[in-house]
Structures are given as C-alpha cells and as structure tokens.
DNA sequence: CCGTATCCCTTAAGATACTG
DNA sequence: CAGTATCTTAAGGGATACGG
C-alpha cells in the first residue's frame, strides 16, 4: 500500500492526525474534556503548567477543527462551557492507548 | 482518582507520554520502523518532508528513550539498521488508533 | 552510506498586565 | 469569569555544505 511518492498511506494519515493535535496541550485538553464538560478555569486547574493564553489559543484551534464545542450561557458573570463533539469523542481511543503507554513508559524508562 | 494538585492521574501519565513523543517526527519514525526494520535512507524516503538533520536527531532521542535499537554492521560502506524495541512495539496500539482517527479526521474536517 | 556542522528564521510558549 | 494584549525568550526546524 504505497503512494506514488513511495511513502506508506498510513504515514500520510498519521501526519494529518498529528497536524491537528500538535503541540504540548491539545491532547491534554481533549482528555480533560473527555472526563466531562468543563469551564475555562476548571480545565486550567486540571492541566499543570498551562497558561491562560495557551489554553485560550488551543481551545480556539480545537473548536475550528470541530473537536470541541463552545457554549456560552447568557449570565453575569459570563459562563462558558466546553464539551467534546462526536468527532472529538473518537479521539478517546487514542487517549486510552496513550494513557496505557504512558504508564508503561514511566516504569520502563523514566523510573517512577 | 485525583492527585493532590487536583489534577487527574491520567493527565500526568499522558503528559509523560507526550514528552517522549513530542515534535512532528517521532511518531512517524516509529510507524515507519514498526512496518519493518530499515536503514537511514529508507526511513527518510518514507517520511515526506523530513531532513537528514531532523531524522538523525530524532533517531538519537528515540534510542535514548529505548524505543528503537541501532545496529551497525561492519561493512564498507557502513550499514546501519534501525529496529523497534519491545517497549517501542507497545506504541503500535497508539499508532493504530491514530491511523484510524487520522482517516476519519480527513473525511470529517479536511475533506480529502 | 550515514550522518555532522553551521547558519538562520519562524514559531511555541512563558510572564505579566489588563478588560468586558 | 473568561479571556486579550504585549513583550520576550527558547527551541524547533529548514537549507546548505561538508566529513568518516
């Protein structure tokens, strides 16, 4: 299953996936939201080290790519809730495998 | 299952995983090698856009993290073969899920 | 064949302060 | 509460040329 360029089709598919998920934060945000709908501050508290700026920026990108949904409630002070879309939900399998691998990696390499 | 910092344990495990896999190339290299042992040039040909410098650098990091193995054969010209370790092999599940998700993502969002 | 060595540029991302 | 704006630094990564 090679393309004309001599590169496996699977490489191309994963390259597209990685482009949508690149950076240190997107997958962590997706994980946080897959554990339940959350508000800005709640996500921020669950992800160690993320700044408001990065969270804000990444949320926008994820929304553009239709992985999450942003819902604004007309209250004062403003209430905004983030949730994952069906397409975003399909990422959960990736996250699960990554979770298992991360635990194994700690034992094998990091030594925690 | 929260840590003292109020952050889910799964977030920490995935954070560790992402640290070992960060960047645009590592997962693609792992994929290429999971399809079979390969030499430097062969990997390079399978991954569109990667430069020798980046490939060389990432291969070292992956070797340090015990995800791949580098074997040198004493020939002229030199022959070097890369293969995945058992720990690297455990990444294949992640790659499979990422592959499926990438295909879906193309249909849903990119429109290929 | 299998890389290294430079040089350079863009982007990610942290810190801090501020707004509707 | 839910973000923006601005500034700055570190790092990722590309182009090119060269070495064992």
TrEMBL record, chains A, B:
The gene is hxlR. It comes from the Bacteria. Coiled coil: none annotated. InterPro entries: HTH_HxlR, WH-like_DNA-bd_sf, WH_DNA-bd_sf. Keywords: DNA-binding, Transcription, Transcription regulation. Residues 7-110 form the HTH hxlR-type domain. This is Transcriptional activator HxlR. The lineage of its organism: Bacteria, Pseudomonadati, Bacteroidota, Sphingobacteriia, Sphingobacteriales. It comes from Mucilaginibacter dorajii. PANTHER family: TRANSCRIPTIONAL REGULATOR, TRANSCRIPTIONAL REGULATOR, MARR FAMILY. Pfam families: HxlR. Gene3D superfamilies: Winged helix-like DNA-binding domain superfamily/Winged helix DNA-binding domain. Transmembrane segments: none annotated.
């Amino acid at each position: 299953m090679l393309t004309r360029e001599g590169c496996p089709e699977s490489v191309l598919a994963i390259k597209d996936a990685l482009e949508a998920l690149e950076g240190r934060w997107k997958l962590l945000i997706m994980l946080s939201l897959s554990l339940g709908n959350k508000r800005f501050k709640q996500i921020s508290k669950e992800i160690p080290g993320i700044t408001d700026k990065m969270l804000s920026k990444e949320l926008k990108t994820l929304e553009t790519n239709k992985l999450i949904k942003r819902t604004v409630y007309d209250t004062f002070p403003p209430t905004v809730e983030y949730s994952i879309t069906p397409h975003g939900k399909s990422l959960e399998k990736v996250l699960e495998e990554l979770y298992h691998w991360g635990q194994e990696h700690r034992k094998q390499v990091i030594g925690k």
